[in-house]
UniProtKB/TrEMBL annotation:
NCBIfam families: PRK12273.1. PROSITE patterns: FUMARATE_LYASES (PS00163). Signal peptide: none annotated. Its EC number is 4.3.1.1. InterPro entries: Aspartate_Ammonia-Lyase, Fumarase/histidase_N, Fumarase_C_C, Fumarate_lyase_CS, Fumarate_lyase_fam, Fumarate_lyase_N, L-Aspartase-like. The keyword Mitochondrion does not apply. The gene is aspA. This is Aspartate ammonia-lyase. GO terms for cellular component: cytosol. GO terms for biological process: aspartate metabolic process; tricarboxylic acid cycle. The lineage of its organism: Bacteria, Bacillati, Actinomycetota, Actinomycetes, Micrococcales. The keyword Flavoprotein does not apply. Keywords: Lyase.
Length: 500
């Protein structure tokens, strides 16, 4: 790391030698080496504030537990506790500068946290940064710990905290779709299967379906979050607990549960828990599920709003920006498009997590940094994507009611609602005639004498067509002893002898 010749520095030493550290930096030599070695992503861990908060919470819980069991003096433990709280409160995050992608299974991240919290504590004690003889990043702030239990626990705590804000945004988006479902409850439209006209429904039902699927995803994400709440604090290097007092694990987990507000529990097998990263894979998969389903909803919004003249044109998305540098007046569905792209990135991140989980070896998975980066990025982008989709798109969607009404009126799909009363064969014959002539199904049914105008109107009412009012009894129009197909064909031919 190159330093300005005029910059004030302090000298720090590790097992590899000495380095000059900026005098005002709260980080130290271990962080400095990471800056030289891992100039990869150019993204510091501070971009994920809940990861930094998770690290600080672990250090605070460790200080309290070490004081409780008598392996750290009250003075030192309280200084570390106070320093960690300042980080939790949002201060000093700019000092967490190591790259999110790094070798060493997260050791650089753990040491960055140890150094920053230690130097904050030294200042609180009225001492100079780097006075590690009084308070050491390793002997005191990292007491009873190893990167191999601190780092995965901090990731899990950070993800648990980050998920809370994602779930809040997801529920707000669900409610936005529900509000549109209420607004569009009486707007009939043609449903589609395989992109072909199917049967009528309401636009409200369609938007209610969007809301319901987001509600299911809220449940799945919440369920999978509990897989993250099993932690391995006290496992130290490989799960055997070497260098940690036997009373440390239950104490530190209890304190961390109180600090974080998360329902954390100590793993039953610390060796297994230290080497296993399956919970990250399951959680990542649930994020992917939510992202892909949200992307499908955005695909539907883009289709429904396509046009405005040569597409479906059933709904209008709020115009957010000019859509072309060459075609005047063109407006693109930019908000659903950006959410689509977020989903693509989340799917790719999930594959990265999967491969990183598979790549673990023996008593430790060295690839937790890329796992953490992938999942935190997915949560961050999804939360922001949901926010812009809700505010800049869903809240402002309007329905093209006249166009939808005309489409339903001319759709042969409404004949399906009459099949319980005139039979499938009759319905098929009339549907063919309607397509050939362009006439309405209702008029053809009435002219063929199969149903009265009042009976047709009743069965083709919005409530019946959308299934909101159940059909319980068929109207006896066709005689039970009469061949349905022949009868309808005769009536249709009689009404339209030219076949036109």
């Amino acid at each position: 790391m190159a330093l300005d010749a005029t910059m004030r520095t302090r000298t720090e030493t590790d097992s590899l030698g000495s380095m000059e550290i900026p005098a005002d930096a709260y980080w130290g030599i271990h962080t400095a080496r990471a800056l030289e070695n891992f100039a990869i992503s150019k993204r510091p861990i501070s971009v994920y504030k809940d990861l930094v908060n998770g690290l600080a919470m672990v250090k605070q819980a460790a200080a309290r537990a070490n004081k409780e069991i008598g392996v750290l003096s009250e003075e030192k433990a309280d200084l570390i506790d106070r320093a960690a709280q300042l980080v939790i409160d949002g201060e000093y995050h700019d000092q967490f500068i190591v790259g999110v992608i790094q070798g060493g299974a997260g050791t650089s991240t753990n040491m960055n946290a140890n150094e920053v919290i230690t130097n904050i504590a030294l200042e609180l004690a009225g001492r100079e940064k780097g006075d590690y003889d009084f308070l050491s990043p390793i002997d005191h702030t990292n007491r009873s710990q190893s990167t191999n239990d601190v780092y995965p626990t901090a990731i899990k705590v950070g993800l648990g905290l980050d998920l809370l804000s994602l779930l809040d945004e997801l529920d707000l988006l669900r409610q936005a779709f529900l509000a549109k479902a209420v607004e569009f409850h009486d707007v009939l439209k043609v449903g589609r299967t395989q992109l072909q006209d199917a049967v009528p429904m309401t636009l409200g039902q369609e938007f209610h379906g969007f809301a319901t699927t987001l509600g299911y995803d809220h449940q799945r994400l919440t369920e999978n979050a509990y897989l993250l709440y099993e932690i391995n604090l006290g496992a130290t290097a490989i799960g055997t607990g070497i260098t940690a007092n036997r009373d440390y694990s239950p104490a530190v987990v209890r304190h961390l549960r109180e600090i974080s507000g998360l329902d954390l529990a100590l793993a039953g097998d610390l060796v297994e828990s230290t080497s296993d990263t399956g919970s990250f894979m399951s959680f990542s998969a649930s994020l992917k599920r939510n992202a892909i389903k949200l992307s499908k909803i955005c695909n539907d919004l883009r289709l429904l709003s396509s046009g405005p003249q040569a597409g479906l044109g059933e709904i209008n998305l709020p115009p957010r920006q000019a859509g072309s540098s060459i075609m005047p007046g063109k407006v693109n569905p930019v908000i659903p498009e950006v959410v689509n792209q977020i989903a693509f990135a989340v799917a790719g991140a999930d594959l990265t997590v999967t491969m990183a989980v598979e790549g673990g070896q023996l008593q430790l998975n060295a690839f937790e940094p890329v796992i953490a980066h992938s999942i935190f990025q997915s949560i961050t982008w999804m939360r922001r994507g949901m926010n812009t989709l809700r505010i800049n798109c869903v809240d402002g969607i309007t329905a093209n009611r006249e166009r939808l009404g005309a489409m339903v009126g001319s759709s042969v799909g409404v004949i399906t609602a009459l099949t319980p009363f005139i039979g499938y064969a009759a319905a098929a014959a009339l549907a063919k005639t309607a397509l050939l002539t362009g006439r309405s199904v209702a008029d053809l049914v009435i002219e063929a004498g199969l149903m009265s105008a009042d009976e047709v109107a009743k069965q083709l009412s919005p409530a019946r067509l959308s299934g909101l009012e159940a059909i319980t009894t068929a109207i006896p129009i066709v005689g039970a002893d009469e061949p349905v197909g022949e009868q309808v064909a005769e009536r249709v031919d009689a009404a339209h002898p030219s076949g036109a």
